[in-house]
Amino acid sequence: MIDNHHKNLATFIHLSTFSRFIIPFGNFIGPIVLWAANKEKSEFIDQHGKQAINFQISVLLYAIIIGTISVPFFIFKLFRGLDFIDFHGFHDFHINVGEPSPLLYIGGGLGALAIIAFIIELALIVRASLAARDGNNYKYPLTINFLK
């Protein structure tokens, strides 16, 4: 039987990831501090702490991958008409946004994917918090298990 204190700690571990909106890297600092201080108290707290930290590391990794893929598309679109060999300064430099290119569509699609992934991430954190509150184990989908 899991007591209410352990359920509350596991819930706060998941909810502490929202501290990133106040503290830089709070989504890592909060869960790591709560988990490290309380992991010996219960296997339930240990399991939820590992899941929260693994999920945040996985989300960071996925965001880096999407960003690495999408940023070059925007850069290529901006500098498409710029001639680096015959460059006479910025007085003739202008950006034509009236003609969208396939690169812009791909980059925009990846940006939209990132926004959708952020909304799903928030929903999964809330779902994990509710599972911890009810005393159930929760496994985040698409999470790489860095901590086992």
TrEMBL record:
It is found in: Membrane. The keyword Transmembrane helix applies. It holds the Pfam family MamF_MmsF. It is a multi-pass membrane protein. The keyword Membrane applies. Keywords: Membrane, Transmembrane, Transmembrane helix. The chain crosses the membrane at residues 12-38, 59-79, 103-126. This is DUF4870 domain-containing protein. It comes from Winogradskyella ouciana.
